[in-house]
Specification:
The protein has 342 residues and is α/β, with parallel strands linked by helices. The chain folds into 2 domains: 144 residues, NAD(P)-binding Rossmann-like Domain (Rossmann fold), CATH 3.40.50.720; 141 residues, Dihydrodipicolinate Reductase, domain 2. It has a 7-stranded mixed beta sheet with strand order 12-11-7-10-9-8-15, covered by helices on one side. Strand 4, helix 4 and strand 5 form a beta-alpha-beta unit. Helix 4 runs parallel beside helix 5 and helix 6 packs across helix 7. The two termini are 34 Å apart. 44% of the residues are buried. It binds (2R,3S,4s,5R,6S)-2,3,4,5,6-pentahydroxycyclohexanone. (2R,3S,4s,5R,6S)-2,3,4,5,6-pentahydroxycyclohexanone binds next to helix 7. The site of (2R,3S,4s,5R,6S)-2,3,4,5,6-pentahydroxycyclohexanone has 6 residues, from helix 7.
């Protein structure tokens, strides 16, 4: 506790100073109380020194383990590339530190199982996964409606996930493992069900897609409760960033993501603007996610999607990649859910 009696801000190490890492750094300084960055890590020594140089009192590291062990670190935010997540998480768990890890938790289910084994050895959950749509006001309202039976038993979720353009490093697999993974978690969360099978259909790629990128794709998810989820993933749609979800139930439908922000009527025309990027469309969700995590981490708790959610999403993604290659409906095989994640 500080002299004023206020609890001292939670000291956070941020691992990864790429686009999302720096977005979170700005968010911690701007929109989240009760937290401060005390260490940053990135394998690019020049970059991490530059980033830390703009943050008073923050130590710069190229080794995630050193950042996690730095003085004053009480929690770890991981925003490095997916393949690097597991190592950084295990460093934090060895020190008993709460973690917020950007999605995907790990690139494959085997890595997520190792994370869960480490938490089970600790006897408590410490890892939260960055499925931030759960903190979006529209998704939260849709979940509230479905939970209340507002449209009866859900039969379908029709999802549309569109990016204006994809980064140069984006691969056909990433449409599923890095993008559709959001709909996988959203469907599990909205419906309270697991995904049991995946089918992937790919039309002739858009002429706007980079050479060799299977873009767009249609991903069909079957659920343990008998619902069917269809996801159009289109990462070079050209017109903006658009995420929609329409739930169809036995007694009605509910749709989010129409982006009814300001509508301008002028000169005989009407129209609105479409966000161009996910950090804009989901700015509030990222803020709420981080505030919720900081509050829970300060109590040594996990309040949002946990390592089981990250594991389930990784298992569905792996089945999706298999389905994309084979063209066949591919079942999802999950391990038994440990009691720690009940
Ligand atoms: C990105 O990593 C995200 O998390 C965005 O929400 C998603 O729309 C985008 O396709 C991903 O690449």
């Amino acid at each position: 506790m500080t002299a004023t009696g206020a609890s001292a801000p939670l000291g956070i190490a941020v691992v990864g100073t790429g686009r999302m890492g720096c977005d979170h750094l700005g968010r911690i300084g701007r929109s989240v109380g009760g937290a401060r960055v005390v260490a940053v890590a990135d394998p690019d020594g020049d970059r991490v020194k530059e980033v830390a140089g703009g943050l008073p009192g923050v130590s710069a590291h190229t080794d995630p383990a050193a950042a996690v062990a730095a003085p004053g670190v009480q929690a770890v935010l991981i925003a490095s590339p997916g393949p690097a997540h597991e190592e950084a998480i295990l460093h934090a768990l060895r020190r008993g530190l709460p973690v917020l890890c950007e999605k995907p938790l790990t690139p494959d289910p085997e890595g997520a199982l190792r994370v869960m084994e480490a938490e089970q050895r600790l006897g408590r959950r410490l890892v939260q996964v960055g499925f931030m749509r759960r903190y979006d006001a529209e998704y939260a309202r849709l979940k509230e409606l479905l939970d209340a039976g507002g449209i009866g038993r859900p039969l379908f979720l029709h999802c549309r996930h569109r990016n204006a353009s994809s980064p140069s490093f984006f691969t056909s697999d990433m449409l599923i493992s890095d993008s559709v993974v959001h709909e996988v978690d959203a469907a599990r969360w909205l419906l309270g069900q697991e995904v049991t099978a995946v089918t992937v259909l790919s039309p002739r790629p858009s002429s706007a897609a980079p050479e060799g990128l299977a873009d767009p794709r249609l991903v069909l998810l079957e659920t343990s409760g008998g619902a069917v989820v269809d996801v159009e993933i289109f990462v070079n749609c050209g017109f903006g960033y658009q995420v929609r979800c329409e739930a169809v139930g036995e007694t009605g439908t509910a749709r989010i993501g129409d982006g009814h922000a300001m509508v301008v009527e002028s000169g005989g025309r009407w129209g609105g603007e479409i966000d161009q990027d996910y950090t804009v469309r989901f700015a509030d969700a990222y803020d709420r996610q981080l505030r919720s995590w900081v509050a829970a981490a300060a109590r040594g708790r996990v309040a949002g999607p946990d390592a089981w959610d990250g594991y389930a999403a990784a298992a569905v993604s792996q089945a999706g990649l298999t389905a994309a290659r084979s063209g066949a409906r591919t079942p999802v095989h999950l391990a038994d859910r440990p009691p720690l994640y009940a």
